[in-house]
Amino acid sequence: MVSAAELNERIVRYGELKPCKTAFIDAHTPGSDQKENFTIIGGGVSESPDQHVHITIPHGFNIGAAGQPPRCRNSLHSHRTAEVFFVLRGRWRFFWGRWGDAGEVVLEEGDIFNIPTGMFRGFENIGSDYGMIMAVLGGDDAGGGVIWAPQVIEDAKDHGLILSEQGRLYDTKQGQKIPDDEKPMPLLTDDELTAFAEPSSMQVVGGYVRRYWDLVAISDAKPVMVIGEKGVIRDKPGFEIDFISRKSATSETQKHDHPAVLMPVKGYWRVVLDDVETTLAPGDTMSIPVGMGYSAMPSMTDDSALYRVVGTKDSAGLTWQGN
């Protein structure tokens, strides 16, 4: 049995998210200095001790979010494990490549992007209002941190931020300096940079992006596995992601052998665990205990959909196949 208090400890409400404005090395760089980062489940990849973690229970993957005003961007970086985004609010441009000019795609609300590892990527809010994107990162430690394009590290140093080899940030404008037993993060060499892929928009978008309204159309009878070994995006990043719409939702009890997370993107969802129930709204995040029976059904609105993340035994490995 689960109590109402225990249930609440596994729910992070959108309105209660605690942002960090100094999470990464580009926190002072003009054009990136207004972004807010959120770590919802797991340690994430923040480089700042100021980052608040809402749910620390290991899931085998991390859940986070980025909130940005219009024209604010996240600088070019790469990850060693999977990074999946879906747009909660706003209109976003994702771009990739050593200089961010190899390819790009614009995503609308509800669209999802399984960004391949092994290439630099960035994103910016191109909408007219504050926007939010939700993120799923592979692994409990999310690959051990972020790999930054060399120019990002150099620009950050000009604005007072230095990253150590241990992945810790130091703000020289605040009088901080790297301890004697640490060294600055070295820039990637030209030879190392050649290992990062430069795929075109055509190569990436068709295989790694799925549009919200397409998912609605194909989920009229049953939930759609968006990312997984048998998903519409075939990948084994250490988790699966399902898309559930109003028509494919079921009141039947479900349970999983691995940690699961519910993330509404449209409408309100009534979730029942044992005899305890709650309602989730877009932007809320709920962790389902392993082996716990639950049901999730939309209420009130016709346009309802949620993404469900379920851990797997697969390692959070590479996703770019070079096709």
In the predicted model, the low-confidence regions spanning at least 5 consecutive residues are none
Number-wise, the strands total: 25
Largest sheet, spatial ordering of strands: 1-23-20-25-18-16-17
CATH superfamily of the largest domain: Jelly Rolls
Q: CA-to-CA gap between the ends?
A: 48 Å
Average pLDDT score:
92
- Named CATH topology of the largest domain: Jelly Rolls
The structural domain count equals 2
Global geometry: globular
Q: Could you please describe the fold and organization of this structure?
A:
There is one protein chain. The chain is mostly beta strands and 323 residues long. It has 2 domains: 15-209, Jelly Rolls; 213-311, Jelly Rolls. It is built from 5 helices and 25 strands. Strands 1-23-20-25-18-16-17 form a 7-stranded mixed β-sheet. Strands 3-2-4-11-6-9-15 form a 7-stranded mixed β-sheet. A hairpin with a 5-residue loop joins strand 13 and strand 14. The longest helix is centred in the middle third of the chain and has 9 residues, at 150-158. The N and C termini lie far apart (48 Å). The model has no long low-confidence stretch (mean pLDDT 92).
